[in-house]
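Kindly go through one protein, given below as sequence and tokens. The question is how this chain folds according to its tokens.

***
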Amino acid sequence: MTLTLEQMKANRKLWVEALRSGRYEQTKSTLVDSRGYCCLGVACVVAGKQDDEISDFTNLSDFKDVRKFFGIRDYDGDFYGGSLVCLNDDAGYTFEQIAEVIESEPPGLFVEKGA
């Protein structure tokens, strides 16, 4: 399925809303576990994945469909100067802070045309 840039941006808004919703507890080093979700785990849920599909993974390397859904360029959410995984796992960013980063569309995080 090919998505336009506008569709990917609309999907990103859903992801940001989910991060800010308070429905998801935050965890580290895995997409989902008994404590909660990392920011990329929330992305998987928004893209339609079930917890049991993502529970054994630490990034989006096996989920090209999720990356395409949002237009994420790299499996760790890398961008120039950082990554979403590092913000979530190492830097102690809250989901609110990560949502702000996603909204700012830092260079390198997202593709620049439809996928």
